[in-house]
Amino acid sequence: MTSTIRTADRHTVLVVDDHPLFRRGVRELLSLESSIEVVGEAGGRDDALELARKFEPDLIVLDLNIKGSSGVEILTALKDEDPSRRVVILTVSDAAADLSACIRAGADGYFLKDMEPELFLENIKHTLEGGTIVDPSMVGMLTEMLRTKAQAAPEVAPIRFTEREREVLDLIVRGLTNKQIARELAISDGTVKGHVKHLLKKLGVKSRVEAAVWASAQEH
């Protein structure tokens, strides 16, 4: 477990992976962006939870396969302690079951480790601004899984949204960050966060990713 002193006015990131060499590579890549600071590295569940409590990072980058625990278990523990924590999964797995488990546990993004470094950095920046990213190769898979789940679910009353909630949901589907949504609708970032929180509660989901895919599935 390693940590650094937090610097003000920069986005903070915690990297969780059981391979020190890979953690170092992610740290060095993120250090290329002046607006991002890696405040800690963890190799397992206990260290991850301890550093998350200590630094309250803006984003946690979490490997899916960690010795002695699973990424889903760590993700669940992080979200149970604080549902507002933003966590993205960085993994080699393109298995549908892993993607589904992570999204339903509240992951705010799902990245494959074979992506180009420049794209990874752009995705991290987008997520830090409140956006959501699922690897493009897996979006269709996730949409189909959630559509199948919706079709198998018992008949329930339609979910009713306010006009503003519908506008926010549509912009989430388009991939806009909280700041971009605020500018688009001429409202504050805090108001956007409030609408997003209410949307997730109404939909019974844990992340913007699942909310976006749910909305997309309703259109097909």
Automatic annotation (TrEMBL):
Residues 154-219 form the HTH luxR-type domain. Gene3D superfamilies: 3.40.50.2300. One of its GO terms (molecular function) is DNA binding. Residues 12-128 form the Response regulatory domain. Signal peptide: none annotated. Transmembrane segments: none annotated. The modification 4-aspartylphosphate is found at D63. Keywords: DNA-binding, Phosphoprotein. InterPro entries: CheY-like_superfamily, Sig_transdc_resp-reg_C-effctor, Sig_transdc_resp-reg_receiver, Tscrpt_reg_LuxR_C, WalR-like. It holds the Pfam family GerE. GO terms for biological process: phosphorelay signal transduction system; regulation of DNA-templated transcription. This is Nitrate/nitrite response regulator protein NarL. It comes from Sutterella parvirubra YIT 11816.
